[in-house]
Amino acid sequence: MKLIGWSARGFDGLLYNTEAMANRICKSIQPGAIILLHEGRRDRRQRPINLILAETVLTRLTAEGYFFIVPDEGDFL
What we know:
By secondary structure, this protein is mainly alpha-helical. The chain is built from two helices and two strands, in the order E-H-E-H. The chain has helices at residues 18-27, 49-63; strands spanning 8-9, 35-36. The protein has a two-stranded parallel sheet. The radius of gyration is 13 Å and the shape is globular.
């Protein structure tokens, strides 16, 4: 594993409201941002929160003209 810093998070480890989490993430996005999402949590209908949240955020930000990359190896700490 490699370590990398993040600059936007939606508190998906604490909240269940994916809309509120997506709003929080999208408000703090700037070019070069790194979004932190956690795996393993599920909503009350047992759907994976991180997948719902990722789809919501990526859809919104794509519509705003953002594009997404995987950081280069040199960007890791």
